[in-house]
Every structure is written in structure tokens, then in C-alpha cells.
Design brief:
By secondary structure, the chain is of the alpha/beta class. It has helices spanning about 10-20, 40-50, 65-75, 95-105, 135-140, 160-165, 175-185, 205; strands at about 1-5, 30-35, 55-60, 80-85, 90, 110-120, 120-130, 155, 190-200. Strands 4, 5, 6, 7, 8 and 9 form a six-stranded mixed sheet that branches. Helix 1 (about 10-20) packs parallel to helix 2.
């Protein structure tokens, strides 16, 4: 996870709660503080750090952007299997259980994601279902036109991401740029065909 000062504390709480109430709780949660945060955000992190020993905070002195923060965080991940999570999204309760099972049953797959339920403010206010193609061949065709993985729901093998050079700065599309490079290094892709994450959106996001 990467956190910066503009995040709303309430959203961060909802995101962390969804992680620590999973049917399969992660061994560790690496949270990169991308530059100085607000007192309210620090208070949330201090509280969750006391409650959950899995939470490990990595502090960057200056804001460097999502790509840099994720690269730093990846270095601190102890496991080969790494899941991404945004600090304002909410994981469905069995997200990690389904993804770990999928990756275990498909050892050839290096990276996968699933669908997103887009919502505004409250998860009952659902706006749309963001689907992505299922198989490697479909993903390879789709990537030429649109982002073929939902980044907030991604799980990947750390070694496969490092082989492609990790996240690199590419305005607004660090993830899409990484997927393209992973394809060129021979990584195998797939997507679970069901929702895994509630994705928070707004009119301002659509404008961007």
C-alpha cells in the first residue's frame, strides 16, 4: 500500500479494516508513507500498528509518486506472492483467499487480478462493474487498447515484477507500463472472473 497526505482518514480505516478481517489475513502489510502525512492519518496508522503486528510502515521523507513508493515497498515484502491494495478501496472479505488459491492452482501464472465494483462514498452506491479479460491470450490482445488488469486487485510474483524492472515513472499509467514490460519478459497473465475489490471513484476521477 502507498499512502500520501491527501487521503481521508475514514477511507484509510475502511481499507485497513477490510484487510485485517479477511478470511485469509496476510502475513505482513507493507504500507509506504509517501512523504509527510497529516496528524489525522498518523493517528490512524499509530492505532492500527498497535493492533496488528503485521503492519509495517516504511517512511519516505518526500513524496515521490505512486511508482516510486511501490518500488520501495516491494523491497520490504518478504514473500514471493504480493497483493496490491489502495488506501481508499475496500477488499471483499474473501479476496485474498480466492487469489492465493488461484495462484496456487495455476503455478504458471505470474500475475492476476479480478473485477472491481466501482462505488461512490458508500459501497451500497454501486456505479458499475469493471471487468477484465480472463486468459493470457485475451489479455495480450486487450493490452494494446486498454489496461488489461485492475491494479487495485492485483496479485503477483515478486520475482516476475522485478525481472521486468519494477514500477517505473509513467504519468497516470505506471501499472499499464509495467504490465507491458512484463509481457515482453515472458510473464503469464490471468484474471479471476468475479469481483474482488470495491473501488472508490468520483466525478473528479473521471475528469482526470
Amino acid at each position: 500500500m502507498s499512502l500520501y497526505y491527501k487521503e481521508r482518514p475514514l477511507f484509510l480505516c475502511a481499507s485497513l479494516n477490510s484487510i485485517f478481517t479477511q478470511t485469509v489475513i496476510p502475513d505482513e502489510v507493507i504500507l509506504v508513507e509517501d512523504g509527510p502525512l497529516t496528524d489525522e492519518l498518523y493517528s490512524v496508522l499509530d492505532e492500527y500498528e498497535k493492533r496488528y503486528t503485521q503492519l509495517k510502515r516504511i517512511k519516505l521523507l518526500q513524496n515521490g509518486g505512486l511508482g516510486k513508493a511501490l518500488n520501495v515497498g516491494l523491497k520490504y515484502c518478504s514473500n514471493e506472492l504480493v497483493a496490491r491494495m489502495d488506501t481508499d478501496d475496500i477488499a471483499l472479505p474473501d479476496r485474498f483467499e480466492k487469489q492465493v488459491k488461484f495462484m496456487s492452482e495455476h503455478p504458471d501464472v505470474d500475475i492476476s487480478s479480478g473485477w472491481l465494483i466501482e462505488f461512490n462514498e458508500f459501497i451500497d452506491n454501486r456505479l458499475s462493474l469493471k471487468k477484465v479479460p480472463e486468459t493470457h491470450n485475451l489479455i495480450r490482445e486487450y493490452i494494446q487498447y486498454r489496461n488489461p488488469l485492475n491494479h487495485p486487485a492485483v496479485i503477483f510474483k515478486k520475482s516476475a515484477v522485478e525481472k521486468a524492472g519494477g514500477y517505473q515513472h509513467f504519468p497516470l499509467f505506471e501499472d499499464w507500463f509495467l504490465w507491458a514490460r512484463m509481457l515482453k519478459t515472458g510473464a503469464v497473465f490471468a484474471n479471476i472472473q468475479e469481483p474482488l475489490v470495491y473501488f472508490r471513484t468520483s466525478p473528479e476521477m473521471y475528469k482526470r
